[in-house]
C-alpha cells in the first residue's frame, strides 16, 4: 500500500518509459528494414537474381505485432480485430490500477494485484498466432488473500481504542481541574472490506474508491465519572531549611512543576520542566555539590524538589526512566532514596518517568513554610489495596578518607583539635516494595546509590613553638626581729577582768 499521488507519478513514469522503449524499438526495426531493403535491391541489381529470403528474426516479429487478432478476449474485454500493438495499448488503458480504500480524509492506494497477470497475458498474445482463438480470464480469487492481508494492515493503522473522559488541565489561579470529553473507539470491518474489494475487481472496476466501514465502541466513562475517579495516587513530604536563598530556589521549582499535565505515553523531564536554573530566572546562590565539591551556585536546593517528586512517582506506581544519586548523601531523606538533578541548559543528570497508564495525570506541588509537598493526581491503576514504597539497605561502607589537616598557631604546640569528624562513604541498594496491607506482595531491585565519604578536618600546631624565658633572680631579704610586746590598755575597766578590776594595789 502506498500513497495515492506517489503511485500515480510512478505509474506515469512507467508508462512514459514504455512509450520511449516502444519508439526506440520501432526506430531500430525501421532502420533494419531499410537496411534489409537496400541490401536486397543491391543484390538484385548486381546478380539479376531474385531477392534472398530473410531469416526469421526481429523484423518478422515486428511484422507479427501488426497483424490483427482474429478472435481474442480478456474477460469482458474484446480484442478481436485489433493488432497486437493495439491490443496491448487497450490492455494498458483498460487495466489501470488505482484501487483505493478511504477512511474519512485518509486514503490508501492498494498494491497492484493485476499487473503480473496482464504481463503474462501480453506475453501469450505475442507468442500465439493471431489466427488462433484466444480467451483469457483474470484470476480474481488469487487476490483474496492479498486483500485480506492489506485489510489487516489497514486495521492496525486505523483502529482506535475508545478514550474515556480524563483530566486535561489544571488552573493554578482557581485550583480547578478541567476534563476532556471521552471519544468513541472504532474497529475496521475487515471481512466486509475484503468482500467490497473483491466485488470491485470482479466488476472490473479497478479505479474504485472503497469506503471502509467501522464498528463504533463508546468510551468507558463520561466527564462526571472521571471527576469521581481522579484522586491523589502518590504523595511525599520533606522539610526544608531556614536558608532563604535555598527556599527561594525550591519555591521556583515548585511553581514550575505545579499543575503540569502528563498525557498517556508522555515522558516527564525535571530539567526540561524547570529549564536552566539561572539568576535571570530568579534562582539564588545556595549550597550545591559540583564534582563532589560544595559550592554556592544559582539553583542550589532544587534537588530536594526532585527527590520529593521521586518518592511521589514511585508511590503512584510508576517507574523512573532516569534517576541519579548525589555524591554525598543529603540529610532530608533516607540514604539510597534521593534523586539528584543538574542542568546547564543543554544536558545534565535528570529525573525522568513515563506515564505508562491509560489516562492523563497532573503533578501538584506546594511549599508552605518549610513543608515541601508533591503529589501525583490520576486514576489509580494499581490493584485495589496495593501500595508501593522504597526500602533501602546498606551494602557496605567505603574505605575511610584520609583526614585533612589545617595549621592553627592559636592552639598549643604539638596538639590537635578535631573541627569536623567527617563521614565514611557507603553503598546502598534500594528496592521497590509492593504491599497489600501488611503483606509484601512483591519486592524488586530499584537502583544502587554510592556516596562518597567526607574527610575529617583536624587543626594542629606543628610550627609555632612558645618562646622559652629565663627565670628572674631576686635578692634574699631577712626580716628584723622585734621584742614581742603586749600593749596593755590603761583606764578603768579597760582590758581587766571583773575580778582584777576589784583588786586594790
What is the CA-CA span between the terminal residues?
159 Å
Strand order of the largest sheet: 11-19-18-12
Determine the mean pLDDT: 83
Apparent shape: elongated
The helix fraction, in percent, is: 25-40%
Unreliable stretches covering 5 or more consecutive residues: 39-63, 481-505
Main sheet attributes: strand count, strand direction, barrel closure: 4 strands, antiparallel
Organism: Lacrimispora algidixylanolytica
Biased composition (Low complexity): 471-486
Region (Disordered): 42-64, 445-505
Protein name: G5 domain-containing protein
Can you offer a commentary on this structure?
This protein is an alpha+beta fold and 505 residues long. Among the domains are: 230-381, no CATH class; 385-464, Resuscitation-promoting factor rpfb fold (Single Sheet), CATH 2.20.230. Helices cover 30% and strands 27% of the residues. The strands form nine sheets. A four-stranded antiparallel beta sheet has the order 11-19-18-12. The chain has a three-stranded mixed beta sheet with strand order 2-1-5, with no helix packed on it. It has a three-stranded mixed beta sheet with strand order 4-3-9, covered by helices on one side. A hairpin with a 2-residue loop joins strand 14 and strand 15. The N and C termini lie far apart (159 Å). Residues 385-464 form the G5 domain. Residues 471-486 have a biased composition (Low complexity). Keywords: Membrane, Signal, Transmembrane, Transmembrane helix.
Amino acid at each position: 500500500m502506498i500513497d495515492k499521488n506517489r503511485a500515480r507519478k510512478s505509474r506515469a513514469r512507467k508508462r512514459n518509459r514504455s512509450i520511449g522503449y516502444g519508439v526506440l524499438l520501432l526506430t531500430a526495426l525501421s532502420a533494419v528494414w531499410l537496411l534489409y531493403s537496400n541490401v536486397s535491391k543491391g543484390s538484385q541489381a548486381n546478380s539479376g537474381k531474385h531477392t534472398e529470403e530473410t531469416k526469421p528474426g526481429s523484423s518478422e516479429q515486428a511484422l507479427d505485432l501488426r497483424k490483427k487478432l482474429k478472435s481474442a478476449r480478456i474477460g469482458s474485454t474484446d480484442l478481436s480485430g485489433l493488432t497486437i500493438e493495439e491490443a496491448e495499448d487497450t490492455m494498458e488503458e483498460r487495466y489501470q490500477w488505482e484501487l483505493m480504500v478511504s477512511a474519512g480524509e485518509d486514503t490508501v492506494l492498494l498494491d497492484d494485484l493485476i499487473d503480473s497477470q496482464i504481463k503474462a497475458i501480453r506475453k501469450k498474445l505475442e507468442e500465439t498466432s493471431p489466427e488462433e482463438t484466444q480467451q483469457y480470464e483474470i484470476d480474481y480469487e488469487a487476490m483474496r488473500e492479498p486483500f485480506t492481508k492489506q485489510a489487516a494492515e489497514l486495521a492496525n493503522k486505523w483502529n482506535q481504542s475508545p478514550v474515556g473522559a480524563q483530566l486535561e488541565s489544571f488552573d493554578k489561579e482557581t485550583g480547578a481541574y478541567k476534563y476532556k470529553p471521552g471519544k468513541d473507539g472504532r474497529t475496521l470491518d475487515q471481512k466486509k472490506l475484503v468482500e467490497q474489494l473483491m466485488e470491485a475487481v470482479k466488476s472490473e472496476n479497478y479505479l474504485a474508491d472503497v469506503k471502509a466501514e467501522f464498528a463504533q465502541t463508546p468510551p468507558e466513562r463520561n466527564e462526571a465519572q472521571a471527576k469521581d475517579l481522579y484522586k491523589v495516587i502518590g504523595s511525599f513530604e520533606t522539610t526544608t531549611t531556614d536558608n532563604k536563598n535555598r527556599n527561594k530556589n525550591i519555591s521556583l521549582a515548585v511553581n514550575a512543576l505545579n499543575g503540569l499535565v502528563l498525557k498517556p505515553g508522555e515522558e516527564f523531564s525535571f530539567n526540561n520542566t524547570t529549564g536552566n536554573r539561572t539568576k535571570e530566572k530568579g534562582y539564588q546562590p545556595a549550597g550545591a555539590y559540583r564534582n563532589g565539591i560544595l559550592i554556592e551556585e544559582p539553583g542550589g536546593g532544587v534537588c530536594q524538589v526532585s527527590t520529593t517528586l521521586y518518592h511521589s512517582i514511585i508511590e503512584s506506581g510508576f517507574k523512573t526512566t532516569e534517576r541519579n544519586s548525589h555524591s554525598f548523601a543529603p540529610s532530608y531523606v533516607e540514604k539510597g532514596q534521593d534523586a539528584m538533578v543538574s542542568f546547564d541548559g543543554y544536558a545534565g543528570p535528570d529525573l525522568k518517568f513515563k506515564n505508562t497508564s491509560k489516562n492523563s495525570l497532573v503533578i501538584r506541588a506546594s511549599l508552605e513554610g518549610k513543608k515541601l509537598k508533591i503529589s501525583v493526581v490520576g486514576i489509580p491503576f494499581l490493584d485495589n489495596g496495593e501500595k508501593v514504597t522504597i526500602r533501602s539497605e546498606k551494602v557496605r561502607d567505603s574505605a575511610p578518607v584520609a583526614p585533612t589537616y589545617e595549621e592553627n598557631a592559636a592552639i598549643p604546640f604539638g596538639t590537635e583539635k578535631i573541627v569536623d569528624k567527617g563521614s565514611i562513604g557507603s553503598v546502598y541498594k534500594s528496592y521497590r516494595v509492593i504491599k497489600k496491607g501488611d503483606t509484601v506482595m512483591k519486592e524488586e531491585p530499584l537502583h544502587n546509590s554510592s556516596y562518597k565519604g567526607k574527610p575529617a578536618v583536624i587543626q594542629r600546631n606543628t610550627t609555632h613553638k612558645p618562646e622559652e624565658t629565663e627565670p628572674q633572680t631576686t635578692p634574699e631579704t631577712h626580716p628584723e626581729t622585734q621584742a614581742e610586746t603586749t600593749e596593755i590598755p590603761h583606764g578603768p575597766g579597760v582590758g581587766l577582768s571583773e575580778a582584777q578590776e576589784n583588786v586594790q594595789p
